[in-house]
Amino acid sequence: MCINTYHGCILEIRDVKFFPDGRSVVDTVGVRRFRVLSHGQRDGYNTANIEYLEDKKVEGPEYEELVRLHDSVYDQAVAWFTSLKDNMKVQILNHFGSMPGKEPEPQSNPSGPAWYWWLLAVLPLENRAQLAILAMTSLKDRLIAIRRVLIFVTRKRPR
Asked: Which InterPro entries is this protein grouped with (predicted)?
């Protein structure tokens, strides 16, 4: 479980590699976001009372706008990743795996589409910015935020 002062995510352990010198590498994936209501310690372990976060669903014209935004940002993300140098792409793919495909229904997961969280992990963002986005409960707001980041990193990169 990863926690900051206010928000975090439950992690699922996918794999653990142990090394002879006592170190280990733990491969995890975030599965559910939460907000910390209170925290403390028990028997030397950090504990917290939490509230799970879910996106607010939209309908009608707002939903149609969300789908257009979702599709547009997804296409922008694919274009950004495709434009990276091959060595950078290989490093990302080796560490994070392939970008998940675009879901036909952007609101099907209570935390939003999987490709979005993959992209958030691979973009060059400070932890503080990632946590601010993690805490958002509006998929539209998160998509707008990531679109801004994609525009910035695309313009910033030397040609």
From this structure: Lon_prtase_N (IPR003111), Lon_prtase_N_sf (IPR046336), PUA-like_sf (IPR015947)
